[in-house]
């Protein structure tokens, strides 16, 4: 790997670790020429494009960063790490590409994001659901929170 600072032809790997649920390898490198340290990432190159079919019928290329931005927005000012959200977004991406189809409806992605957020943080889930499911009044919030509370209470009984 060429050094981005001095253009030296080679670099030494200092540390290697897996990120994004094992889908990416992060390597810290050091240039023997100038001592500069830098990070590189190795990801699987996908040959297939995944299209998202929007509600109005438009199609756009799937963008994991768009999914991540939505999750980050739902988790603003909550104690949820970026790494947790990146792992969730990567899992969603892997599941979508694993389906082996060329197109998926945006509603499927929305449901996957909502389900992931429900596991991560209930407040983030309600925030996301309120926008995604287009809550129109307070009753929608009450119903969704009631479902979460019933599920939580049911889980406590089983333990």
TrEMBL record:
GO molecular function list: ATP binding; DNA binding; zinc ion binding
Cofactor note: Binds 1 zinc ion.
Keyword Cytoplasm: no
InterPro entries: ATP-cone_dom, NrdR-like_N, RNR_NrdR-like
Cofactor: Zn(2+)
All copies of domain ATP-cone, residue ranges: 50-140
Keyword DNA-binding: yes
Top-rank taxon: Bacteria
GO biological process: negative regulation of DNA-templated transcription
Chain intervals annotated as zinc finger (unnamed): 3-34
Entry keywords, A to Z: ATP-binding, DNA-binding, Metal-binding, Nucleotide-binding, Repressor, Transcription, Transcription regulation, Zinc, Zinc-finger
Family stated for the protein in its record: Belongs to the NrdR family.
Protein's job: Negatively regulates transcription of bacterial ribonucleotide reductase nrd genes and operons by binding to NrdR-boxes.
Protein name per its UniProtKB record: Transcriptional repressor NrdR
GN (gene name): nrdR
